[in-house]
Fold:
Amino acid sequence: MNASKQSTVVIATRESRLALWQAEHVKSRLETELALSVSLLGMTTRGDQILDRSLSKVGGKGLFVKELETALEEGRARLAVHSLKDVPMELPDGFELAAILEREDPRDALVSNRYATLAELPLGALVGTSSLRRVVQLKALRPDLRIEPLRGNLDTRMRKLDDGGYDAIVLAAAGLKRLGAGERIRACFTVDEMIPCAGQGALGLEVRADDLELKRLIQSLTHRPTWLATLAERAVSRALGGSCSVPLAAHGRWVDGALLMTTALGHAEQTERPLLRTLHQEPVQTEAQAEALGQRAAQALREQGAADYLPQAC
Ligand SMILES: NCc1[nH]cc(CCC(=O)O)c1CC(=O)O
Structure:
């Protein structure tokens, strides 16, 4: 046994029920598959504190990871567990995603106390979601819907639905299932009706880039098909300067050994503008091929006029 197996590996985690479930899940895999000793360090991030404004307006995905990275930097923890979709496309210098676990259900789910499907929602029904990606795709499916912001962790969002504030809300199926709330799902959108965001349903394990020992230990947890698919998805977002203020969907799935990539890009302000869509299918075996596939999708979006859809800075 080497030194790191004898010392305890500390996982820094947010304290929402979902984050704690994910951290516990990784803890038990590290214990059973790698015989590591693991403990959790719970922390509150800026993203957890700011609940009254849309994330796209207050700084985006980085809000949920910065405090965890500080804990890694200061040596208070060695590992941070993230929903991959909340991880910014570019990590700050000195940090790396050292493992990507097998993706669970990547779909978005409709949750409602009154209606079983999107089609059942009456004309002009009120749907809650703060995700621009979900807003633009909902509008494409049902232009009549009224869509209102809905923030907070999954429990908070379901409580706001139960309090009668909405006819239905849209949440990630993976999150609901992890919380043991899978029975609240009335219907899942297919990944073609509502294309998921890059990384949805997958977990990413972040470490300090110089922690070679832990990187080597945990790399065996990576599920290669998920790793390649999410690499391609994140490449689309990166190529377009992706952030929370861009309603971009990018999803890769494996079909007969080839990676089938679909994307959709909506306009952040003018939601009546048509969605731009791409579909590419290619045999992918290497990281470089996965990234190239993502870049090809981004290029195809640009050729359809993506520049007019993106915020001015991009
Ligand atoms: N943005 C918040 C968030 N981050 C990860 C999940 C769910 C789990 C996942 O998609 O991996 C959710 C909830 C949601 O989007 O409804």
Q: What stands out?
A: Residues 83, 85-86, 154, 171-172, 174-175, 200-201 surround PBG (CB under 6 Å). The CA atoms of residues 172 and 217 lie 30 Å apart. The two ends are 50 Å apart (CA to CA).
